[in-house]
Amino acid sequence: MKKLILPLLALLTVFLIGYFFRQPLFSSAGVLEINTAPEVTVFINGQNLGATPFKKEFKPQKLEVKLAEKNDPEKVLWQARVPITSSAITLIKYQFNQNDQQAYSELLTLTKIPDKKNGALLISSLPDQAIINLDGETKGYTPLLLEEISPGHHSLEINLDGYQNTIIGLNVAAGFQLNAEIKLAKIDDEKNQEVVSEKQNLTQETVTILSTPTGWLRVRGGPGTGFAEVARVNPGEEYSLLEKDGDWLKIALESELEEEKTEGWILGQYAKINETGQENNNPLD
């Protein structure tokens, strides 16, 4: 009798756990999340399901997703067939603009792959032929498939002349391919001219490396600690300033071996900007 009761108790326990936590334990549904600026109306398979931000569970399938103006649902701004994967989030992010060329969007979906130890990353962009950097390392041009990606957080950077630089934080899961479809936002011509003028002015400026706790300063492939180290510079050395991004400075490096210019980013707190025409008084002297 005891042998019969124990399996029944175990089965009852599993049933109760499934009842109170049924979504995580038994659900094979996926989640569709939509974030936009400004807010829009969401239509799923022709049904009005409200405004963004939007988040809802669906069974695995391909959904007809349509985004329309909030005050004029008849005016469609974007539509596509979007796949829903079991136990995964499908993410749509859209920043609308009156000039569609200056609008930006992300569509992130997951598909299962045979490799259970690693993940994969498929990146496409509009326009294509954008430069792809993953964790500070250049990988190629879009469209691009990267396989055997280690599970965990990764930094994806997409660059294309004439379009805004895009940096996305991605979580890659083992056994899944993350599909990233990115519509790049074209830089406004007037703003682009201002950026060009600013860069021209910056190229006339230099930076002097200040003292650091380690006695040297890392140069990274991008403006952030998530980017890989590409070189090291020493206190007292001076470099041409190419660009500013928040607390980070982009400098020109001279390669003694290959006699060619390279570029990298340093943390601004360890550098002094020497303005045009200003004599460099080395703070270490």
Task: Please provide a written account of the structure.
This protein is globular. It has helices at 2-20, 22-26, 189-202, and strands spanning 30-37, 40-44, 47-51, 54-58, 61-69, 76-84, 89-95, 104-112, 119-126, 131-134, 137-141, 144-149, 152-159, 166-172, 176-183, 206-209, 217-220, 229-233, 238-245, 248-254, 261-267, 271-274. It is mainly β and 285 residues long. A hairpin with a 2-residue loop joins strand 10 (131-134) and strand 11 (137-141). The chain folds into two domains: 26-188, no CATH class; 190-274, SH3 Domains (SH3 type barrels, Roll). The chain has a seven-stranded mixed sheet, with no helix packed on it. Strands 21-20-19-16-22 form a five-stranded antiparallel sheet, with helices on one face. A four-stranded antiparallel sheet has the order 3-2-5-6, with no helix packed on it.
- Please trace the helix and strand order, writing H or E for each element: HHEEEEEEEEEEEEEEEHEEEEEEE
Largest sheet: 7 strands, mixed
Number of E-state strands: 22
Question: Which structural class should the secondary elements be placed in?
Answer: mainly beta
Radius of gyration: 25 Å
Shape: globular
| Tally of domains | 2
- Cα distance spanning the termini: 89 Å
Kindly report the spatial arrangement of strands forming the biggest sheet.
4-1-7-8-15-9-12
Q: Please bin the fraction of helical residues.
A: 10-25%
% residues in beta strands: over 45%
Question: Unreliable runs, pLDDT <50, ≥5 residues?
Answer: 4-26, 256-261, 277-285
The helix count comes to 3
What average pLDDT do the residues reach?
82
